[in-house]
Amino acid sequence: MTAEAFAPAKINLTLHVTGQRPDGYHLLDSLVVFADVGDRLWLTPGDQLSIDVSGEFAEGVPTDHRNLVWQAATGAGWSGRIQLDKALPHGAGIGGGSSDAASVLKTLAIQGLPTAKEFHLSLGADVPVCMAAQASRMQGIGDQISRVALPKLPALLVNPGVPVPTGAVFSALAWRDNPPMPSNIPEFSSAQDCAAWLSEQRNDMHVPAAAIAPQIDQVLSEMKCTGNMLLARMSGSGATCFALYPTMIAAHRAAYDIGAANSDWWCVATELS
């Protein structure tokens, strides 16, 4: 029987790089939420493992052991055909591959093939938080996940079509011992309150990512010109940026305006939670 899975886009509302361990892993403090847009997968059991990729962003997605979906299925001891409808840009700072892998792992766990948390982390720092797929604070090397209560956040996601290698951004960081977020994240009564607090936080990856892909700053500049914009920031290591709005109507208007002026950009209004 074929099982269907949804892999939502992961958005880093904040991303503080707080240190680096002797083994090279970076220490992070990040507030993470998930969108209502994402990839879709269908898993059909069989004798051999295969991945078929379709969708808007299928080009360039590996269909062998280089794909985290393949590694997730293999690690769970599952074989069969995986159909991946790639609706999210890859190399975009929104955890597409990690979310795909997490959705496979959760689907297989329901079918009696659970996997250990250590394995999830071995696939990538974003996989554990993608397993949670809810508003969370991610700390350590991605292994410390705690749930956070946040209001639903109307948002716009924009990617200018430029992939940004995460490793290159980390390598270009000028400082790695930056302050973490406050110990306690307050309760917010509205998207406006949340955005005001977020404006005091950071994404430490922004400067090196924008040096690699200057289009990031162009996206942010255009976002800041949209009506009722509360906050605009890059997600993850880029190049996707998000903007927050008080209502979904405002988010949809911004998506229309930016998309009309930049037909080659990926623009989508969404609700983050």
TrEMBL record:
Domain GHMP kinase C-terminal span(s) in chain numbering: 198-254
EC number: 2.7.1.148
Reactions catalysed, as given in the entry: 4-CDP-2-C-methyl-D-erythritol + ATP = 4-CDP-2-C-methyl-D-erythritol 2-phosphate + ADP + H(+)
Domain GHMP kinase N-terminal: 79-144
GO molecular function: 4-(cytidine 5'-diphospho)-2-C-methyl-D-erythritol kinase activity; ATP binding
ATP-binding found in the keyword field: yes
GO biological process: isopentenyl diphosphate biosynthetic process, methylerythritol 4-phosphate pathway; terpenoid biosynthetic process
Key word Cell inner membrane present: no
Amino acids binding ATP: 89-99
Swiss-Prot/TrEMBL keywords: ATP-binding, Isoprene biosynthesis, Kinase, Nucleotide-binding, Transferase
Pathway terms, separated by semicolons: Isoprenoid biosynthesis; isopentenyl diphosphate biosynthesis via DXP pathway; isopentenyl diphosphate from 1-deoxy-D-xylulose 5-phosphate: step 3/6
Active-site feature positions: 10, 126
A Pfam family of this chain: GHMP_kinases_N
Family the UniProt entry places it in: Belongs to the GHMP kinase family. IspE subfamily.
Primary role: Catalyzes the phosphorylation of the position 2 hydroxy group of 4-diphosphocytidyl-2C-methyl-D-erythritol.
HAMAP family from the UniProt entry: IspE
Protein name per UniProt: 4-diphosphocytidyl-2-C-methyl-D-erythritol kinase
Organism from which the protein derives: Parasedimentitalea psychrophila
